[in-house]
Design brief:
Radius of gyration: 24 Å
Strand content: 25-35%
Distance between the termini: 84 Å
Number of domains: 1
Order of helices and strands: HEE
Low-confidence stretches: none
Shape: rod-shaped
């Protein structure tokens, strides 16, 4: 009986370790996604600061996919270079 309990404890420990590893990887993945989104937002903001734009309509969709994220950005605008 103690061999069965020992095996069960071993499986429990391995499962707990694997779960902890997966949780850490998920946290890192979410942090990377957040960093990517912030970077993309900053790049878009920098570009928009250099132009005069009148946005008529927009759509921004973020979707989790198997190996990362999918970002769908669409907008309709009239844009002109800023005259300084």
């Amino acid at each position: 009986m103690s061999t069965l309990k020992s095996k069960a404890d071993d499986i429990k420990n391995k499962t707990s370790d694997a779960l902890a590893d997966q949780q850490q990887k998920m946290k890192e993945s979410l942090s990377n996604i957040q960093t990517q989104l912030q970077s993309s937002g900053n790049q878009i903001n920098d570009y928009l600061q250099s132009i005069d734009a009148e946005v008529h309509d927009y759509r921004f969709v973020v979707e989790k996919i198997d190996n990362g994220i999918s970002i769908d950005v669409a907008f309709k605008a009239t844009m002109k270079q800023k005259v300084e």
